[in-house]
Amino acid sequence: MPRPAAPADQWRPALAPALMLRHDPVRDTDLLVLPERVVVLTGRAGTVVGLCDGTRTVPGIIGELSERFPGAPVAGTVPAFLDSLRREGWLT
Amino acid sequence: MTAPAPPGSAVAPPWALLAELTHACPLHCPYCSNPLELARRSAELSTEEWTDVLRQAGALGVVHTHLSGGEPLLRPDLEQIVAAAETAGIYTQLVTSGTGLDEARLAALTAAGLRSVQLSVQHADPRAGDRIAGRPSSFAAKERAAALVRRAGLPLGLNVVLHRDNLDAVDALIDLGVAWGADRVELANTQFYGWGLLNRSALLPTRDQLSRARETVERRREQLGDRIDLVWVVPDYFDGVAKPCMGGWGAVSLTVTPDGTVLPCPAAASLPDLDPPSVRDHPLAWIWEHSPAFGRYRGTDWMTGPCRGCPRREEDFGGCRCQAFALTGDATRTDPACALSPDHHLVRDPADAGRAEPPPYVYRRPGAAPVPAPAPALTPAPTPAAGGRDPL
Predict the structure, then answer these.
(1) Considering the entire predicted model, what is its pTM?
(2) Which ipTM value was assigned to this complex?
(3) I want to staple B167 with a disulfide (CB 3.0 to 4.6 A). Which of A31, B209, B331, B351 is the partner?
(4) Does residue B248 register a pLDDT over 60?
(5) CA-based nearest residue to B159, from B350, B255, B145
(6) CB distance A26–B155 less than 8 Å?
């Protein structure tokens, strides 16, 4: 059930309990596995979701990604991506 | 949910495995998806064999398993089987009647890695539910099980098989899902093979019942929004459209039966000349990629009749092979559920027939269904007395 959104800077995204994030070595991709569904995470999406462990804020996640991937447009894309996962109920 | 095949292999790996851990079950639902000939408990795979099957499945690419039956809680080693799936990286969902689930058992299963529970529900009214399930007090057991699952924080789905005797209760069934805290309610119209085909005259609904139920689902979806996922599995006898059975033969998932037989779909044991392989004889990877049984209806080359040139052939894969065989005797024919099938009258006629007095259920029990006659004995059979009735 969707919860009221916390103010953007205070939200510490965490994977919803029913979900499993895993790497799939057979297909060489990251997956989100949930009841009756498998979501294939393309590109670096799995890395971003992997940082959603409930300890980091969104600015914290962006900071960490910017260090790992210098020059990538993370500040522009990551908040919208995380928000879309929250709307699906996959992040809390 | 398709992905390109990895390099070096012509066959894309499977995503999901249905593990039928046992055919034993406290319920006797007349539409059960198990075969008419139920596997004996003594023939079941051991804990070690299931552990190895799940390890092989994970290595092959399976990421999702339904632990089902029969009633999987009747396996005392279910916790070990869950743990084996978790070790193999496979997401586990328990598919249960709820009978036999208590707090300690659920805690042990959760500790082993169980992720989600699907509970079968026969009706929203306890007495009607118990009658369909063929077991007193089974509804009460489900209500307790649902509460336990919610308290444990696991996602809960309700699985309802729809037919003549519960389609008018769809509104109440959705209310039940809300009251029990379900995340998902699957409203699946009966598929008529095996026990369902045996009970078809008792289970087939009327068109009016179906259209009212469909409207109800639409209305409740609008009203409930994101609160609950309402899944409607189409009644293929009535829609004139074949269902994309299993996402294609040997394309997405496989079924392992209690005795280790591996099937492209749970009903495929009904195909008499399939000769399905067993995990007791072959590695799972060989079975998926190279066995004749999995190759037989894979892709579109095997297609006949209207399927062959049909623009929908990559969408519905010709429908259900088991239904084609059950109704026409030939598994390569277009599924008679499709309005383009020359055999479409085989589903249309029974769907349109009025049934004022449906027959009683043949409940699912070992020995309840007629099975093929045993091989003839080598000694001469007694000659029937003149004028005697055909013994069959």
Answers:
(1) 0.90
(2) 0.87
(3) B209
(4) yes
(5) B145
(6) no
Q: How far is CA A58 from the centre of its chain?
A: 10
B16, amino acid identity: A
**Residue B372: other Cβ atoms inside 10 A:** 8
Nearest CA in chain A to B252: A38
Q: Has residue B311 got a pLDDT over 60? A: yes
Report residue B364 as tokens. 């699912």
Cα separation, A4 vs B20, in Å, equals 41
Would you state the pLDDT for residue B379?
40
pLDDT digits (tens, 9 = 90+) for A42-84: 989 999 999 999 999 999 999 999 999 998 889 889 999 999 9
Picking from A1, A33, A89, the nearest residue to B63 by CB comes out as A33
DSSP chain A: -PPPPPPTTT---BB-TT-EEEEETTTTEEEEEETTEEEEE-TTHHHHHHT-BSSS-HHHHHHHHHHHSTT--HHHHHHHHHHHHHHTTSB-
User: Chain A residues contacting B, CB < 8 Å?
Assistant: 1-2, 17-18, 20, 22, 24, 26-29, 31, 33-36, 38, 40, 89
Q: Write out chain A residues lying below 8 Å of B3, CB-based.
A: 27, 29, 40
When scoring B90, B91, B93, B159 by the number of chain A Cβ atoms within 10 A, the one with the most, hence best to mutate, is B91
pLDDT digits (tens, 9 = 90+) for B67-90: 999 999 999 999 999 999 999 999
- Min distance B91 CA to chain A CA atoms (Å): 7
pLDDT band (50, 70, 90) for residue A17: confident
Distance CA B147, CA B317 (A): 40
**Given an 8 Å threshold on Cβ–Cβ distance, is B60 in contact with A18?**
no
Cβ-Cβ contacts under 8 Å between A and B: the total is: 49
pLDDT at B100: 95
